[in-house]
Amino acid sequence: MANQDDKFKKVISHAKEYGYVFQSSEIYDGLSAVYDYAQNGAELKKNIRDYWWKAMVQMNENIVGIDAAIFMHPTTWKASGHVDAFNDPLIDNKDSKKRYRADVLIEDYCAKIEAKIDKEVKKAEKRFGDSFNKEEFVSTNGRVLGYQEKINTTLSRMAKSLENEDLADVKALIEELEIADPLTGSKNWTDVKQFNLMFGTKLGASADTAMDLYLRPETAQGIFVNFLNVQKTSRQKIPFGIAQTGKAFRNEIVARQFIFRMREFEQMEMQFFIKPGTQGEWYEYWKETRMKWHLSLGMGAENYRFHDHEKLAHYADAAADIEFKFPFGFKELEGIHSRTDFDLKAHEEYSGKKLQYFDHEDNASYTPYVLETSIGLDRMFLAVFSNALQEEDLGDGKSRTVLKLPSVLAPTKAAILPLVKKDGLPEIAKEIVESLKWDFNVIYDEKDAVGRRYRRQDANGTPFCITVDHDTKEDNTVTIRHRDSMEQQRVKIEDLRMIIKKEVDVRNWLMKMK
């Protein structure tokens, strides 16, 4: 765990030092679980959003995008079930006075057992070397099987208790497992209570006539209430999807782990409207398609896994998460849910308006079923950033910190460096900046020795450094250095655009999904 904690601390401090993420209102001592994206963070976030939008909307003729308002009529949240059922189980420690999510305490307990399994696997790997068969070991080793059994029984009991709203049993489970307050080690717990996560606000000029509103806790409902408007104006036939990215707000009890769980966050969601009865095949299709999108970024297949839900939401008939290996273990990055016709039916009932689709082939009207893919943009940012941050040993006691961001997502694609600040080299470098900035986000950097500038750009995630030297004046060539391999090559100034484009072009990255 200590190693994981150290890695995570490095991620947080690097994000601040290199202008990716700042604590919100830091000069006033900050606001808990609220963060600002700095100059590089804003670019990386925008690039991730664009990469998702291109793959989801632009590449699919039957998916269109919308941008619905954050404020919605309050009855929306009654119909969606959020007013009555959008709760987290909450538990307080009587000694530390700290508040926790009961389910997260139990999940963290299981994550520690999972770490023990990893330890056993690593020991066996060392012992058996090349002849080691991980699958066989995990399915036959007594100790590992025991650990796995403990995880399974714990999680399924918790899921059952939460589903039945048996909060006394959730507390009993915490006590039986002897789960202690992570800060003080105290096991003196209160009862478990439910806590609604929606932020309330008011709409209207005077206190007596103001209407109670909520900040939206998810972006999906804006899609559902616009289903018919979009279908008719875009003349889409089922199956078709509506995508949207935007802010959502949750009054998290325990917001923690940096930008992993925040009170104000951004979602990238797509609701796919289908014929009832076809949800099984579409569920499998979107699971596979979304995983391909993640893998296209080259962040390592071993860092992803599917987790099928034991506890299904009241509206779902199937649900799975794509989990990513964050510095603090495997956690949910994206959800794929088969939502049946719950949402549209509920909005029909509460609004009194028909939300049905007329199928010309069947000559019949029906309420479509929905298949949802929902990913947290901030979590995706954290996945990309934490995976990219690496310490590399260069031999001879030297090392470098490098942020190996997928180049398609990198905030700055190239830094243009004059070797010295004289002899007309800065002027040539600035001309190169002027010609490249139409196609790419590039920067000019002249401060410090060129080696230090390389290191700075490595740590900033810039895929290319282009150095202008005295030979440039003679033959119009420059040195281009690649971040990941540190290889340098001499190329013509006029070829720079094509070299960079080949490496950062969205098309080349998304083609990996094919």
Describe this structure in words.
The protein is an alpha+beta fold and 514 residues long. The protein folds into three domains: 42-74 and 197-386, Bira Bifunctional Protein, Domain 2 (BirA Bifunctional Protein, domain 2, 2-Layer Sandwich), CATH 3.30.930.10; 87-195, 2-Layer Sandwich (Herpes Virus-1); 397-513, Anticodon-binding domain (Rossmann fold, 3-Layer(aba) Sandwich). Helices cover 40% and strands 25% of the residues. It is built from 18 helices and 23 strands. The strands form seven sheets. The protein has a seven-stranded mixed sheet, with helices on both faces. Strand 4 and strand 5 form a beta hairpin. The longest helix is centred in the first third of the chain and has 27 residues, at 102-128. The radius of gyration is 26 Å and the shape is globular. The two termini are 38 Å apart. The model has no long low-confidence stretch (mean pLDDT 92).
